[in-house]
Amino acid sequence: MARKALSEKTKDIVKKEFNHKCAICGCDHPQIHHIDENHANNNVDNLLPLCPNCHLTDQHNPTRKIDIPKLQLFRKYKDPTILSSEFHPLYIRSLFLKEIELNDNNVESLEVYVQELIEFISVLKMGEFYSKRFRELLKQKPRVYTRSLSSGRDYEYEKRKKINNQEYRQQLIKNKEIFQDLIIELLRYQKWNNE
Q1: N or C: which end of the chain has fewer CB within 10 A?
Q2: From CA 120, how far away is CA 91, in angstroms rounded?
């Protein structure tokens, strides 16, 4: 796509939001980086002020794959821990939430992703509280599947199972922003080894 000129007003809005400092290292005189690398997308949420070093070295390094969703998460929450290597395992386990509406994963695989995320969170500091909160958000009617004893296809069983699966998926979709907020909130309680 063709590069669209970035207005001074938009640049000022983005820089002002980050106190005219680099969003990553806090240096002065930042440049404006397009998170999705589409220079025609001048939406404020797609722009991040970065100093020349962070902009060129970290964001446009041809040997480093840019993780656009992680940068978008950083843009939204402005928490530098999001860009740390310590956050990456938690980030990887939460990616299914971002794609839940796009993918048509079966509910059994979604349950596996959710369970792994909850187990991972539970071992972190304050993890017991946050994993409990996740479980509360996923409460649903008991999933009772009983087949009739008659031979052949049990359409009532399949119908109940399909409805329960749809309800579970809808709960995940409805609460995905809350889950994301809780994951980022959990970060402030962590003491990584390098601190």
Answers
A1: C
A2: 11
| Residue partners of 103: CB distance under 8 A and separation at least 6 | 96
The tens digit of pLDDT for each residue in 15-61 reads 999 999 999 889 999 999 999 888 899 999 999 999 988 877 655 56
CA torsion angle 94 124 135 138 (round to 10): -10
d(CA 119, CA 36): 32
| Predicted local distance difference test score (pLDDT) of residue 145 | 52
Tokens encoding 180: 């994301």
Q: How much of the chain, in percent, has pLDDT values that exceed 70?
A: 83
Report the distance separating Cα 171 and Cα 3, nearest Å. 40
User: What is the enclosing helix (H) or strand (E) of 48?
Assistant: strand 47-50
Residue position matching structure tokens 């929450």: 77
Instruction: List the structure tokens of 18.
Output: 């980050």
